[in-house]
């Protein structure tokens, strides 16, 4: 009988790898799946040093090849995004409850750092609304900006520093996998919920309110708006609606004719300039329309001395820094990759983490707050024809000239125009089509999206995000704890073995049950796998009893099992004992290297029997059929004797 179980194709029972070799291979796959240093192999030391420098500091790779032809495109793109950076910088700084000049500072130093270390050609650096509001809400729990602006600002810079440290550490340790826990559904819901609360908060500026809530949830914001309805200014509302209609019209023009993207790009700057002229000549302050106020000339002052690590307050910057670090990385890397894919290019997520982290660290030293790659600015940069990161340098130079010579001119900017700019930008973040697509295609993903949306809108930004991530993790754990198994049958025309549920025409083999296991076997799913296999056998028995065929062999196709732990090995042996008690022989097919090594070092392969391990399903079935024929012949001979 044993001799019949010989595989035509031999299973490779090589000596198991050493612990060091296995650990090295696993670490490489975990932290270096893209093998970033493959170009350094078989290169001389000098060449390795040059390539290594270019890898960690990408500007040394593209700058030597740079030409005036490329600069013409980057110059136009840089000037275009600078026109967007000025109004956005002032607007988002007000959203973070910090002086507007800080928003302009944040578009000067960070883009220079990114141009040196970033590897995306299209990413345009700047502040973002979601992180501005989140950092303000978190720091505001400890210190009120109106009561102590100096302390509040120091904690903002400290949070930016913490965020930069976290981002840089994640990049250096190759831990980009952590950012992957922010799923597509979570980001969609988070951005939509954030857009809702930011739009509602801008009603403060649109209505000219002087008193408002520090909370971010919808209920608190609406309560504050109607509680202070005596402060509503109809003049401010009319001006705000006019600006908002103008901005939305330019977005409509851009969507209808994409080549006119520049109309939408310069619209915020036009709004600010027109608003300044209106406020100056119409004496807007006398009519209840508030303005930004004094903006001083000069480039970024140092803020190293403002970093505050006082134990009394440090919890708020750490919390804000960690959360905004993850969110800004997810947004920046996703946006950079999406535009790189359009040009069939590739960016390294871990290098992007280092670049974004370094620009926030250095930014916190130069009076800047959190920056990343906002979608609106990056889209404008891409459509304007940027070729390299030099467009960020051009934008930075434009911001420097603005800070040195033009900043005071923006002192008359009406707050209502900034509110209109923010509202217009946020309305584009509420993506109804994506939410509907999730609802139609995957109800669980839709629930994850809605958890983030309603959590952010009605509880708080950080709790809404954590609830959504938690729900997504529960789903991932369910996939691990309840892995897919299926029964295989043979498709006559193709001669292939496939899932009988997916291919109803696939036929089972009499006396043989073929099951495919599709995930690693760990302690978390061992009990389920055992019970599911025994259930397959029970169900198969109920079908075969009516046909007079008994199951004699259980084939477990293990090609989809990439790894197995000790509990998993014991589970396989337990399954073997259970099925043998029913008169069924267990056969393993196509075990992967790590699985076979684990079975070998635990000597479980001897218990299973090497003669019951096959390379292909065909080999295993041929051996089983031969054994079944021998068994049938012996039964007939015994009956004849009787």
From TrEMBL:
One of its GO terms (cellular component) is membrane. It is found in: Membrane. It comes from the Eukaryota. Its main location: membrane. It holds the Pfam family STAS. Residues 502-624 form the STAS domain. Gene3D superfamilies: STAS domain. The chain crosses the membrane at residues 70-86, 98-117, 123-140, 152-175, 181-200, 232-249, 261-281, 320-342, 354-372, 393-410, 416-432, 444-474. InterPro entries: SLC26A/SulP_dom, SLC26A/SulP_fam, STAS_dom, STAS_dom_sf. Keywords: Membrane, Transmembrane, Transmembrane helix, Transport. Coiled coil: none annotated. It is a multi-pass membrane protein. NCBIfam families: sulP. This is STAS domain-containing protein. It comes from Anisodus acutangulus.
């Amino acid at each position: 009988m044993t001799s019949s179980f010989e595989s035509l194709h031999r299973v490779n029972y090589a000596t198991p790898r050493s612990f060091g070799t296995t650990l090295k291979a696993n670490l490489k796959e975990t932290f270096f799946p893209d093998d970033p240093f493959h170009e350094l192999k078989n290169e001389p030391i000098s060449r390795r040093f040059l390539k290594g420098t270019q890898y960690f500091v990408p500007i040394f790779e593209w700058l030597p090849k740079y030409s005036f032809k490329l600069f013409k495109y980057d110059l136009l793109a840089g000037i275009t995004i600078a026109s967007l950076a000025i109004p956005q910088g002032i607007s988002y700084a007000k959203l973070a409850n910090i002086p507007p000049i800080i928003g302009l500072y944040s578009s000067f130093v960070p883009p220079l750092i990114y141009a040196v270390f970033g590897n995306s050609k299209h990413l345009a650096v700047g502040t973002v609304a979601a992180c501005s509001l989140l950092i303000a809400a978190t720091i505001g729990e400890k210190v009120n900006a109106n009561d102590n602006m100096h302390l509040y600002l120091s904690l903002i810079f400290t949070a930016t520093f913490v965020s930069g440290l976290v981002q840089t550490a994640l990049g250096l340790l190759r831990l980009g996998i952590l950012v992957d826990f922010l799923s597509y559904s979570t980001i969609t819901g988070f951005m939509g919920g954030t857009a809702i609360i930011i739009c509602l908060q801008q009603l403060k500026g649109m209505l000219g309110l002087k008193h408002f809530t520090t909370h971010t949830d919808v209920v608190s914001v609406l309560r504050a708006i109607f509680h202070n309805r005596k402060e509503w200014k109809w003049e401010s509302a009319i001006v705000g609606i006019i600006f908002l209609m103008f901005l939305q019209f330019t977005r409509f023009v851009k969507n209808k004719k994409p080549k006119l993207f520049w109309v939408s790009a310069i619209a915020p700057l036009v709004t600010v300039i027109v608003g300044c002229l209106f406020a100056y000549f119409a004496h807007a302050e006398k009519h209840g329309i508030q303005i930004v106020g004094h903006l001083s000339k000069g480039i970024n002052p140092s803020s190293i001395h403002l970093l505050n690590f006082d134990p009394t307050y440090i919890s708020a910057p750490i919390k804000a820094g960690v959360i905004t670090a993850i969110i800004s990385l997810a947004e920046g890397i996703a946006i950079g990759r999406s535009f790189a894919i359009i040009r069939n290019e590739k960016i390294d997520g871990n290098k992007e983490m280092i670049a974004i982290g370094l620009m926030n660290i250095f930014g916190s030293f130069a009076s800047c707050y959190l920056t990343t790659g906002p979608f609106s600015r990056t889209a404008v940069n891409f459509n304007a024809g940027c070729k390299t990161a030099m467009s960020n340098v051009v934008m930075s130079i434009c911001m420097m000239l603005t800070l040195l010579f033009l900043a005071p001119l923006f002192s008359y900017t009406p707050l209502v125009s900034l509110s209109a700019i923010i509202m217009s930008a946020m309305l584009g973040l509420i993506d109804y089509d994506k939410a509907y697509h999730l609802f139609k295609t995957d109800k669980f993903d839709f629930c994850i999206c809605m958890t983030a949306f309603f959590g952010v809108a009605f509880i708080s930004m950080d709790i809404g995000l954590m609830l959504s991530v938690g729900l997504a993790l529960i789903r991932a754990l369910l996939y691990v704890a309840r892995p897919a198994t299926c029964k295989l049958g043979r498709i006559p025309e193709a001669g292939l073995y496939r899932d009988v549920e997916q291919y109803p025409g696939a036929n089972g083999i009499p006396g043989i049950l073929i099951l495919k296991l599709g995930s690693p076997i760990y302690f978390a799913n061992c009990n389920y796998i055992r019970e599911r296999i025994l259930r397959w056998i029970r169900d198969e028995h109920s079908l075969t009893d009516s046909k007079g065929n008994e199951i004699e062999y259980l084939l477990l196709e293990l090609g989809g099992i990439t790894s197995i732990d000790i509990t998993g090995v014991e589970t396989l042996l337990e399954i073997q004992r259970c099925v043998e008690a029913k008169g069924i022989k267990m056969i393993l097919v196509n075990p992967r290297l790590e699985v076979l090594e684990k079975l070998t070092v635990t000597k479980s392969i001897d218990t299973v029997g090497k003669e019951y391990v096959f390379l292909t399903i065909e080999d295993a079935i041929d051996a089983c059929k031969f054994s079944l024929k021998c068994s049938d012949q012996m039964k007939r001979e015994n009956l004849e004797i009787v």
